[in-house]
Amino acid sequence: MQSDIEIARVARKKPILEVGAVLAIPPEELAPYGHDKAKVGAGFIRSLGERPDGSLILVTAINPTPAGEGKTTTTVGLVDGLNRIGRRAVVCIREPSLGPSFGMKGGAAGGGHAQVIPMEEINLHFTGDFHAITSAHNLLAAMIDNHVYWGNALDIDVRRITWRRAMDMNDRSLRQMVGALGGVANGFPRECGFDITVASEVMAILCLAEDFADLERRLGSIIVAYRRDKTPVFARDLKADGAMAVLLKDAMQPNLVQTLENNPAFVHGGPFANIAHGCNSVIATKTALKLADYVVTEAGFGADLGAEKFFDIKCRKAGLTPSAAVIVATVRALKMNGGVKKEDLGSEDVAALTRGCANLGRHIANVRRFGVPVVVAINHFTSDTEAEIAAVKDYASRHGVDAILCRHWAEGGEGIEELAQRVAEMADGGQADFRPLYPDDMPLMEKIETVASKIYHAGEVTADKGVRDQLKAWEEQGYGGLPVCMAKTQYSFSTDPNLRGAPEGHVVHVREVRLAAGAGFVVAITGEIMTMPGLPSSPSAERIFLNQEGHIEGLF
């Protein structure tokens, strides 16, 4: 069996100008990065304004497990399947972070015969977008400390500097530290730390900005610190927004690549699905909608995090209206939700599978709550038995949706044609009646409680007085109309990552809230969510190397 990277390496790629031609993008509007990837010009994107939009399809999933679900693989495969049945479709996904690529999760370019390519470059430096975001983030951090060093005219309280530094790598030793040691020449010592780049507000801003002017406005609205009177200090107060925008000029342009079957793919942006909204950029999605009849995109983690944030943050803020949704599930993952250990997943266990289907049922109901029609994609594994597959289909049928077996990992677009046909029918049928979960004018705490009760099925939401007071203060300052971005474990509907299935009546404790004023949402942090992950005991980096031919091995 070939590995993902072996399959990608032998793929027959088209020159990127030919891929662009499929979408009628003129060669002069593409800025090639080599022969197989390119940036789409801002002028061309502006020229698309009057064109009608295609149909937007979301691919989401059940809660992730160590057994694997294959959401990105299904997203890519679905676009190949749609094109195979004669529909003009484009895929829009996020760029992978170096942290997971060298850590535990691996890359995010799909897998098997449903990938975007060049796989190695997408999972590594790609077109340099993440490096530009890291640089813009750290420029702002440097300008804060420099301002304090040269007299602190803005009266920044160094105890209340909220802007940390960033790097695109997992490094637990940088989470919390003391900076500016070594004497007067190095500034004023203070507690600080690093977040991973995908958790940066700059990343979220780039992915929500409509154009360059909107990008600069949002960057200027970042709150970096507070004065002694507790009034906020913005990035624009430091005159940092212009230079930050300059660093992001090229990063704002969507990246065009291709699938293994040479279909167009936009891979752009990559906000953390916990601390941020976990979706690819608005500008890439909107550009694709002008160029194709169907745009298939995904949202991070399971539907309780990814789909909810896609609907309540990205679609709300960008004015997008999804036409259909796909929930990816695997027999293996459902058995884990039913109590089966990972080492026992190869054995048939219909009873455990049926118990685990409660997780799938909850996600089906949740997506329907947003008024979006749903279909289930069963991502096939060779260990799946006919009885287990039949049990999933029967369960889905009893919940009023189709569950379709998909073999795209092994067969590419041919193995997912049935799902592609069903998705096209749903999108063309105009069944969607999209509506966010809560209105803009609902108080912030009530928004948090609404997500927790209606999506997580929590029995109670608790928060200290300081958290509630902070939310009220933000409402008084004019931020009450923002959506909430829940930072919660991806492994469970609850805040306990070990509580699988579909738990009811649990308590969601909000331990901290953060205002992402530039991105335009309020983050509610629950459980043990970290913005700088650590490496596992045996990171993937130990098995990544160049072979004698100069090819990368071990990347997945």
Automatic annotation (TrEMBL):
Family designation: Belongs to the formate--tetrahydrofolate ligase family.
Chain positions recorded as ATP binding sites: 65-72
Taxonomy of the source species: Bacteria, Pseudomonadati, Pseudomonadota, Alphaproteobacteria, Hyphomicrobiales
Biological or metabolic pathway of the protein: One-carbon metabolism; tetrahydrofolate interconversion
InterPro entries assigned: Formate_THF_ligase, Formate_THF_ligase_CS, P-loop_NTPase
Record bears the keyword Transferase: no
E.C. designation(s): 6.3.4.3
Enzyme class: ligase
Reaction(s) catalysed by this chain's protein: (6S)-5,6,7,8-tetrahydrofolate + formate + ATP = (6R)-10-formyltetrahydrofolate + ADP + phosphate
UniProt KW keywords: ATP-binding, Ligase, Nucleotide-binding, One-carbon metabolism
One GO molecular-function entry: ligase activity
Protein name: Formate--tetrahydrofolate ligase
Domain of life: Bacteria
Gene3D superfamilies on file: Domain 2, N(10)-formyltetrahydrofolate synthetase, Formyltetrahydrofolate synthetase, domain 3, P-loop containing nucleotide triphosphate hydrolases
Record-linked Pfam families: FTHFS
Naturally occurring in which organism (per UniProt): Pseudorhizobium halotolerans
